[in-house]
Amino acid sequence: MKARTTGTKARIVEQARRLFNAHGYAQVTTAALAAHLGMAEGNLWYHFKTRAALLDALGERFAHEIEARLALRPGADPVASYGALLRALMAEFRAFRFLYRDQRGYGESAALVSANAPQWLERTFEQIEAHLAALADAGLLDWPRDRLRDLAINATIILRYGLEHFLELGEPGGEGSGTVRRTLKRHLTLFEHNLVPAAAAAIHAAIERIEADSALAA
User: Fold this and answer.
1) CB atoms < 10 A from the CB of 176, how many?
2) pLDDT per residue as tens, the chain (218 positions)
3) What are the phi and psi torsion angles at 163 (to 5°)?
4) Which three-class secondary structure state does DSSP give residue 141?
5) What are the pLDDT digits (tens) for 153-175?
6) Which end of the chain is more exposed for a tag (fewer CB within 10 A), N or C?
7) DSSP character string of 143-166
8) How many Cβ atoms sit within 10 Å of the Cβ of residue 49?
9) What is the rounded (10 degree) CA torsion for 130, 133, 138, 141?
10) pLDDT at site 181
11) What is the Cα–Cα distance from 180 to 57, expressed in whole angstroms?
12) Contact (Cβ atoms closer than 8 angstroms) between residue 62 and residue 116
């Protein structure tokens, strides 16, 4: 029974994530979620007494995944490491789109996210800066060290808001839409002209592989 309960809760959390991403947190009622899951609304309440409890469960999952992403550090091949970081960031922004997009809708309910969002953002700046510094140290990026933080912040802003930017323009954002590629290439315009040609080409190739990964369009 415990295994079944755990499995049902995990299914509720996953399907809630998908619906919140697709329609927005404020627009998905518990009745709609229960119908989507094929269960009575009372059964949904059995597993999650409140919407806030469901949101907290999603916040815990998000926290686990963002900590894993923040652990990615530059390796022996700084270009490959940067490509891996871009892939992880796009996967995160896709998987938890509503948490990045709908703050006004869920307000302060997601306590874990609200409490940690500022330090997660600051650590993201630091993470991207470290990867850019690795490119610079390897002689692949010509950029003043004292301006790498500014570059990292600007890159984060484009990566963070890029997907929603295209949707706000009325452009499709699902699988095959090219929004992942365009977002990644737009951030690359910040510093591509300061990369050695081979490194720029390798990052472009990594971006094409990320766009081709259908899992990122979920």
Assistant:
1) 9
2) 445 557 899 999 999 999 988 888 888 888 999 999 999 998 898 999 888 889 899 999 999 999 999 999 999 999 999 999 999 998 898 888 888 776 655 555 677 888 888 899 999 999 999 999 999 999 999 999 999 999 999 999 999 887 777 667 666 555 555 778 888 999 999 999 999 999 999 999 999 998 887 555 44
3) -60, -45
4) strand
5) 999 999 988 777 766 766 655 55
6) N
7) --GGGHHHHHHHHHHHHHHHHHHH
8) 10
9) 130
10) 85
11) 27
12) no
3-class DSSP state for residue 20? helix
Identity at 168, one-letter amino acid code: E
State how far the alpha carbon of 157 is from the alpha carbons of 8, 84, 122, 148, in Å: 36, 18, 12, 14
User: Contact, 135 vs 202, CB < 8 A?
Assistant: no
The answer to whether 81 and 73 have CB atoms below 8 angstroms apart is yes
Query: Both tokens of residue 97?
Result: 């789109």
How far, CA to CA in Å, does 130 sit from each of 125, 145, 160, 167? 9, 11, 18, 30
- DSSP codes joined into one string, 52-119: HHHHHHHHHHHHHHHHHHHT----SSHHHHHHHHHHHHHHHHHHTHHHHH-HHHHTT--HHHHHHHHH
C-beta atoms surrounding 202 within 10 Å: 18
